[in-house]
Each structure stands twice: as structure tokens, then as C-alpha cells.
């Protein structure tokens, strides 16, 4: 048997690394794919943008085993489900939860049922769920319809729901806040992230509070969440019947963790704001081309939001008067290859050139 000390931190996964903070015991079978321990990347260019001696870091969750932050919560939810002897997992999803659930179910050797709004999730995410062998049930509706059905099926007792309404998911996801504090030595002053079903903002806030309570950090960040402008129920404080955005992962009109998100935002003296699709896509390109971090559109909402905070007096949280030397973390939630449609469209203008050095040289335009 390989001792834990000889395993790399990466392959240990979040349960092994943060066991004391998670709802697991010696009896819990650990279903892990080596999630977590993702890079916290200092960005000189974003730091320059905000100025005033501030430091900006990007927490890149796209490098988790299935390419999104969901894996942190899924390892805990699936491990606990196995401990309870569940027969099958079930989830509704805009794509990433289903990819993650399918992978961890495969690892655990149990059935995973995913209810998906057909035509409204990125093909690549559907490919993941399919490849991992999930039972895929497409519905002719949106994510909110899928979650409603899952909640009803939950009452039959035949399934374990692995959406973020499952507290084990939130428990696992809070480890991202632990990692940030472990790396930075304290919590940041501001934490920016995209908001969809609102599980992640809830989880980060729980993590920051828990570490603070254990005196692993001295302060708490202001949580700043960003929704897509036409899918912003929390911002507008009303259910959006037909949410629309290019960022399909956060195309949600009635988030499950709405109340928890509100609490996180108000307790942390943070804010909820909106970014439009043009801003999201511009931020996605900017991050790829200036920092080498390629994220899916939904993930770029935190970067678009950061730019809004820097530039606009209208932002729900303006950085114009930000205290000198503040530290800001932006979470990017999913890998760019998960939802590349917009980039593929832009690539269509590529045309082959003749097979001579001269033609190639001319095409380089240096
Ligand atoms: N970013 C990405 C890439 C996501 O997939 C999601 C949510 C979010 C942000 C928002 O996080 O829901 O915790 O507020 N995706 C869910 C899914 C809804 O089904 O994969 P949240």
C-alpha cells in the first residue's frame, strides 16, 4: 500500500487534505479523482488595472479532474452517498455538475442519472457525461425545470441528489476558500465569482467563516457575485422565467441557493452585480490572451465583473476608492474547452495558404 506521505498533494484530493473540516469519518469510503489544490495565479496585469498597490489572483478551478470546481463538492457528496449505501445518483445540470457526477459515479461504480435541458448545454459537457457512462435524460425545458423534476424524484427515496442542494456538495466546495487562505496566509479582501445556482458563493462563504472561526485567518472577504444580465434573478430579486445568456452554465432563473447567497453577500458586506454577454466574451478573450488562462464563458463573468468594478462608478462594488494594497481573488470556475462554440465561430475565418515559405512568411505578417 502507498502511504499518504508518498502521494503527491494533488493526488490526495480534498477529503484527505481537509478531512477534519468535512462531514466524513473513518467509515466513509473516499471516492476521489485527485481534485483540488488548483493554482492561485498572481496576475500583474489585473493588479495594474485596479492600481493602488492592489494584488489580484486568479483561482483556476478549470484544472480539476473533470474541468470544473464541481469536483470538490462531488468527491464529498459521492463518498457520503456510498457510505449511506445509495443505489443511484441523480442531478439536474447546465453541464458541469452532470460531467462531474458522472465521473465520480463511474469511479464509485454506481449509476448516475442526469437530467439536462437539451440544446441548452455545451456539447462538450454532454460528451463528458456520455463518456463516463451516465444515464442521460434530456428534457424539453430549461435548467429550472430539470431541477424541479429532480427535487420531486428525490422524494421517492430511490436516488441521492448531487446538486448543491445536497449539503455535502457545499461542504466539499468550501475547500477552495481553505486553499486560498493556506496559500495567501490570510483571506483576501474581496472575492469575485460567477453566480448561477448560487451553491459556490454559499460554499466559499462557509469556508471563509469556518477558517476564521478556527483562527486560520484574521479577516473575511467581501463576496462579490456576478450574474449574466438576462439571467440575474438574485440581482433583480425576482424569478426570471426565460433566462438567457451565452454563458450557458449560469443560465438559471430560479437558483436553489438563492437565500444562502443573499446571506453570504450581506454578511460579508459584499455585492451582487450583472455583466452582459459582450463583457463576458471580452473578458474570456482577455484572460486567454493576456494570462494564458482559457476559461468557459460562465467563468469569465468574474473577470468581466472585475473590469466593471475597476472601470465603472455604477458597479455594485466600485474599486475606484479601494483601500491601498487590497488583495482580490477572482475564481474562474470551468475550463475553456468545455464550451468553445464562440471561439470556434471566430476561428472560421482561418483560410489555408499555399505551401511555399514565401506565402507562409507573408501570412505571418510580422
Ligand atoms: N461557473 C460554471 C462553469 C458553472 O458550471 C456553474 C454552475 C457556475 C459557474 C455557477 O456556480 O451554480 O454554484 O452558482 N453550474 C451548475 C451545473 C449549475 O449544473 O453545472 P453556482
Provide a quick synopsis of the model.
By secondary structure, the protein is of the alpha/beta class. The protein has 15 helices and ten strands. Helix 9 packs across helix 11 and helix 12 packs across helix 13.
Description:
With 366 residues, the protein is an alpha/beta fold. It contains 15 helices and 10 strands. It has helices at 9-18, 44-50, 70-83, 96-108, 123-131, 143-154, 167-173, 175-184, 199-213, 233-236, 258-267, 277-291, 301-311, 341-347, 357-364, and strands at 40-42, 55-60, 88-92, 111-117, 135-139, 160-161, 190-194, 222-228, 271-275, 327-332. A 6-stranded mixed β-sheet has the order 1-2-10-7-8-9, sandwiched between helices. It has a 4-stranded parallel β-sheet with strand order 5-4-3-6, with helices on both faces. Helix 9 links the parallel strand 7 and strand 8 (222-228). Helix 8 crosses helix 9. The longest helix is centred in the middle third of the chain and has 15 residues, at 199-213. The chain is globular and about 65 Å long. The chain binds ligand F0G. The site of ligand F0G has 21 residues, from helix 4 and helix 9.
How many strands appear in the DSSP assignment? 10
What is the molecular shape? globular
Question: What integer is the average pLDDT?
Answer: 96
Bound molecules: ligand F0G
Discrete helix count: 15
Radius of gyration: 21 Å
Amino acid at each position: 500500500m502507498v502511504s499518504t506521505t508518498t502521494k503527491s498533494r494533488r493526488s490526495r484530493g480534498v477529503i484527505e487534505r481537509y478531512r477534519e473540516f468535512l462531514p466524513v469519518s473513518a467509515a466513509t469510503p473516499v471516492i476521489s479523482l485527485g481534485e483540488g489544490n488548483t493554482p492561485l495565479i498572481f496576475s500583474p496585469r489585473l493588479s495594474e488595472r485596479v492600481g493602488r498597490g492592489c494584488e489580484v489572483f486568479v483561482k483556476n478551478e478549470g484544472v480539476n479532474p473533470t474541468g470544473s470546481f464541481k469536483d470538490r463538492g462531488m468527491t464529498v457528496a459521492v463518498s457520503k452517498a456510498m457510505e449511506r449505501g445509495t443505489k443511484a445518483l441523480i442531478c439536474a445540470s447546465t453541464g458541469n455538475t452532470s460531467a462531474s457526477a458522472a465521473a465520480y459515479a463511474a469511479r464509485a461504480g454506481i449509476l448516475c442519472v442526469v437530467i439536462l435541458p437539451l440544446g441548452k448545454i455545451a456539447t462538450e459537457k454532454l460528451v463528458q457525461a456520455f463518456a463516463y457512462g451516465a444515464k442521460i435524460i434530456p428534457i424539453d425545458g430549461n435548467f429550472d425545470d430539470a431541477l424541479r423534476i429532480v427535487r420531486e424524484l428525490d422524494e421517492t427515496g430511490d436516488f441521492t441528489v448531487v446538486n448543491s442542494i445536497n449539503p455535502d456538495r457545499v461542504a466539499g466546495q468550501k475547500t477552495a476558500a481553505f486553499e486560498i487562505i493556506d496559500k495567501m496566509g490570510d483571506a483576501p479582501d474581496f472575492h469575485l465569482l460567477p453566480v448561477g445556482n448560487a451553491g459556490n458563493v454559499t460554499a466559499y462563504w462557509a469556508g471563509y467563516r469556518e477558517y476564521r472561526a478556527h483562527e486560520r485567518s484574521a479577516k473575511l472577504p467581501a463576496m462579490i457575485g456576478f450574474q449574466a444580465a438576462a439571467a440575474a434573478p438574485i440581482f433583480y430579486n425576482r424569478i426570471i422565467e426565460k433566462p438567457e445568456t451565452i454563458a450557458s452554465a449560469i443560465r438559471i432563473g430560479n437558483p436553489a441557493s438563492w437565500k444562502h447567497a443573499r446571506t453570504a453577500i450581506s454578511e460579508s458586506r459584499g455585492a451582487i452585480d450583472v455583466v452582459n454577454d459582450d463583457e463576458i466574451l471580452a473578458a474570456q478573450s482577455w484572460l486567454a490572451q493576456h494570462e494564458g488562462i482559457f476559461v468557459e464563458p460562465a467563468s469569465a463573468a468574474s473577470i468581466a465583473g472585475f473590469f466593471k468594478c475597476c472601470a465603472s462608478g455604477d458597479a455594485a462594488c466600485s474599486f475606484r476608492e479601494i483601500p491601498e494594497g487590497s488583495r482580490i481573488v477572482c475564481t474562474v470556475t470551468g475550463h475553456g474547452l468545455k464550451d468553445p462554440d464562440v471561439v470556434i465561430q471566430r476561428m472560421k475565418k482561418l483560410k489555408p495558404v499555399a505551401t511555399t515559405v514565401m506565402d507562409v512568411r507573408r501570412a505571418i505578417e510580422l
